[in-house]
Amino acid sequence: MEEHDEGRRVSRRTALAGIGTIGLGAILAACGKAAGTSSTVTTSTGATASITPQAATGAARTDLFSGSNTCVLTESTTQGPYYFDADKIRSDIREDRQGTRLKVAIKVQDSETCEPLSDAVVEIWHCDAGGLYSGAESLSSGQGGPGGPGGGTPPTGPPPGGEGGAPPTDRPTGRPSGGPGGPGADDGMGDLKPADDKRYLRGAQVTDSSGVVEFTTVWPGWYRGRTVHIHAMVHVGKARVLTTQLMFDEDLNTEVFAAEPYARHTGRDTFNDGDGIYRPAMLLKITEDGDGYRGAIVLSADSDRDGA
């Protein structure tokens, strides 16, 4: 991503922050309008703001996604126990979390027409280097209290029967997530009520005219019962049309986890080949990017939710 594009994005995010938090619901309503148009939404403080999808960056973006996936309906997975609307419309989701820098580029396209889906909202969320999720640090530590790197007993992940247990409903279904009741109608997991005010490694972006969003984050850590992954959810209009997960090559996981802060979290028990959710199509296309990495993937969403 070119520096001037990131500058525009940061400036827009800074301006929005100055007039109050814009809830995801307001963004979804605004994005239900015609593609490529600006929309005015009301913030939590009663102010108004204009939301315009990100600008396309041209040929470089085509190269980024070449060979990263094909136009096949992306398999849906469980949303897991740690999803909630974080009210964070931003590209840099790191906050104070330490780890290897990772830029994630996601292109969303229609699974039937293979055309880019502009004005879709893409959310991602994942654990930090020690396996903790913001908004759920106590639950994700498995200890009833804070854990993570340097915190003693390693995080143990979801409670029994959660996403790590891989019951039949946790496996990819090929169906769009959602329908009446949203993704919870598929996996039996409703949205989490946050237990703390942390919001690191969570955020949302609006796809541009090329169907692309980009995030800056850190390489995810791990927790017991799951391989390394990022959760992703796509909204079209007010509907959740895809809930899936993004995965990583194990050789790269090994390389990243040899360095701090990952190295202090030992005892990893689940890898791609032993994970009940992992599928090869979920692998990000990873390239080196300075002192970090860049990951890209194409997600094909059933935007009209007709099962095709």
Automatic annotation (TrEMBL):
InterPro entries: Intradiol_dOase_core
Superkingdom, natural source: Bacteria
Region (Disordered): 136-196
UniProt keyword list: Dioxygenase, Oxidoreductase
Gly residues bias: start-end ranges: 142-154, 176-187
Gene3D superfamilies: Aromatic compound dioxygenase
Claim: Lipid metabolism is one of the keywords in the record: no
GO molecular function: iron ion binding; oxidoreductase activity, acting on single donors with incorporation of molecular oxygen, incorporation of two atoms of oxygen
Protein name per its UniProtKB record: Protocatechuate dioxygenase
Species of provenance: Streptosporangium minutum
